[in-house]
Write a structure and sequence with these properties.
mainly alpha, mitochondrion, transmembrane helix
């Protein structure tokens, strides 16, 4: 049975986690893996900034209604960016003609006339 000290030492010496990687390089790596996440974040910030800018000219609209509309628009932008990201990753994984994958295997099976 390991003591608490041995467990903590083992966890801290885990080589899968790296503190050497800087935040900027990690952000760049993650942006390359899924490019629609930074687009969604930027769109969210743009919608919120525009909503805050327009707050002074909202007219007779209550503040709470204006904030709710701003939140819905910002969330809609993020959900749209996430949806496009999922579609893009599915395209890269399954339909990209430059690399063989599942669809190329299906096309090979279709070209062989199997009889049952």
């Amino acid at each position: 049975m390991l003591s608490t000290y041995e467990v903590l030492y083992t966890m801290s010496s885990n080589k899968n986690w790296s503190a050497d990687e800087e935040h900027s390089s990690k952000l760049v790596r993650k942006a390359k893996e899924s490019p629609f996440v930074p687009i969604g974040m930027a769109g969210f910030l743009a919608v919120v900034a525009y909503g805050l800018y327009k707050m002074k000219s909202r007219g007779d609209t209550k503040m709470s209604i204006h904030l709710i509309h701003m939140r819905v628009k910002a969330q809609g932008f993020v959900v749209g960016a996430m949806t496009l990201g999922v579609i893009y990753s599915m395209y890269k994984q399954y339909l990209d003609p430059s690399k063989p994958g599942i669809m190329s295997g299906i096309m090979i099976l279709r070209n062989k006339n199997f009889t049952y």
